[in-house]
Every structure is written in structure tokens, then in C-alpha cells.
Amino acid sequence: MNDNMAVMAAYGLKKAYGACMALDGVNMQVRRGDIYGLVGRNGAGKTTLMRMATGQSDPTGGELELFGASGKNMRLQRSRTGAMIEIPSFSPFLTARENLEYYRLQRGIPGNQVVDEVLELVELADMGKKKFKSFSLGMKQRLGLALALMNHPDFLILDEPINGLDPEGVAEFRQILRQLNRERQTTILISSHILSELSNVATRYAFMEQGRILEEISAEALHDKCRTCLRLEVDDAARAAALLQTELGTDKFEVLPGNVLQLYDCLDDPKRASYALAKNGVALLAMEQKGADLEAYFLDLIGGGRHA
Fold it and tell me: Which CATH number is 227-291 given?
């Protein structure tokens, strides 16, 4: 398979629930080998998108592809995927091994050795006779991941898998995902509210808001954008951008929603920027030097969180 092949791709993908557009023309590509971080607030459309990829929901417009196949042809390709949209329904009175063996038989997965393999991978092999009802949240999440891995998927889809975990649980889950990606070349689509944790594993991101993809960006490019900058809030971003080019001779800046610019120049002399704007009639409402993290970048992208 070509390394640049899209394991999952959406083209103008739409999903309507009555008058509500859960997905509104989504365009995206998850490429082979990605750990693709899906970033968005509650209601942004992340789970809807994942449910479409797993066949739990059908689009009302546009097209979705898995491994280059679309429509009815995706059914076969879905056998190459594993998913944890929520913690599966496990029997509280069975052990981890017994629960997985039940699902292995139900799904017709050959070879009972696969149960031991995935339990070892998610570090639950030594649970012995401990019942699921006694598991911590982190253990339950890891057992859900083990279930998603039993068919040795090429593509793993995880919706908020680290939500509610303590720091130790998050670190363990993060290590497992890295191992899967590095050693098994598993492509991973993962959403999370813990944006700082996504930044520790993701190789590529999509930022979602109100059913749309605002931006797709590689981890390297995002790192560059989050480097130290002057954050300028002005009354007229278009004029300010023109002045930075003509007065300061720089194009090392970005214009963000909400009349905000991030300037990667003049860091040692920010007064040059403020003077150039002021003398040409652009009101500088706020200026600060910052190095944006993932959460700050996302909030700036959606306009400082001011949009509903």
C-alpha cells in the first residue's frame, strides 16, 4: 500500500438530523501511518463522523471512503478496522479473558491465542480471576481497546478513549497507541477533549466546529504555528496585515478569526509593531507575547471560543 494512500477520506460529507446539520460538507484525509487527532468541542461532529466510518450511521450527502472503497464496497474494508466509540458492553461478572473470549466466538475470530495476545498488548494479561465489575476506569478502557484490536485492524478508530482517566492511565494508554502505530503500523483516528495529550501522540490534526473541518494540519506545521509569537488584537486585521508587510517588511504572521494576528517577527522589539499600527490609524486593542499550546491554537481558530 502506498504510504500516502488515504485510509479514510471524506468528500463534502454531510449528515442531517432534521434541520440540524451534524456534518456540513466535511473534507478530510487520514493517511496510512497517521495518528490523526480529531479536535472539537461537544457537538462539533466528531462522534458522528466516526459512526459513519464504522457503519453505524449513513451520510445524507457527500462521500466517505475506506481504503479507497465507497458505498457498499466499504463493507469488506470495514473488516480491516477496529473501533471504540464508547466502552463496549462487558459482563460485570466475567474476567477480562472471559469477556474477550465471548466476543471472539460471537464475531467468529479464529484462534483463541488472539485473546492472550491483545491482553498482553494492553497490559491486562495478569488480571487473573478479577471480574470486570472491579476494574478501574483505565482498565475498562484498555479492555475496550483490546476488543477493538482482536481482528488485527489496519485502522483503529477511538472516540474520547482517555476521557476521565487519571494521569497514570493516560500515560499508559498513550504508550499503547504509540506502540501500535510504531510496531504494527496501525493507522489511528482519535478524538479527545484532553488536547495536551493529543499533542503527545498525534502526527496530524483536524480541527472541527459546527460540523465542519476548519483546518487539517500536520504536527510539524502545528508546532511551527505554536512557536513563540506576538499576539495582536486589532480593530482591522486586513489593514494591520498590510501594514506589517509595508512598514515592517515582514510576512512572518498569520491572520486569525476575531481580528487577531500572530506575528513571528519583532519579538525582541514589539514596540516597532505597535508604533507602525498606531501611526497608521489601526487600533491595537491588546498585545502579548506567547507560545500557543494546542488548546490556545484551537480557541484562536474558532474565534476565541466566542462562537456558539
Answer: 3.30.70.100
Domain extent listing, the chain: 6-222, 227-291
**Locate cell 491572520: which residue?**
255
Looking at domain 6-222, what is its CATH homologous superfamily?
A: P-loop containing nucleotide triphosphate hydrolases (3.40.50.300)
* C-alpha closest to that of 123 among 109, 135, 110, 111: 135
Radius of gyration of the chain (CA): 23
What residue has cell string 481497546? Answer: 145
Pick from 150, 142, 153, 143: nearest CA to 54: 153
pLDDT tens across the length of the chain (308 residues): 455 689 999 999 999 999 999 999 999 999 999 999 999 888 899 999 999 999 999 999 999 999 999 988 998 999 999 999 877 789 999 999 999 999 999 999 988 899 999 999 998 999 888 999 999 988 998 999 999 999 999 999 999 998 878 888 888 888 999 999 999 999 999 998 778 778 889 999 999 999 999 999 999 888 877 778 899 999 999 999 999 999 999 998 999 999 999 898 888 889 999 999 999 999 999 998 877 678 888 888 887 544 33
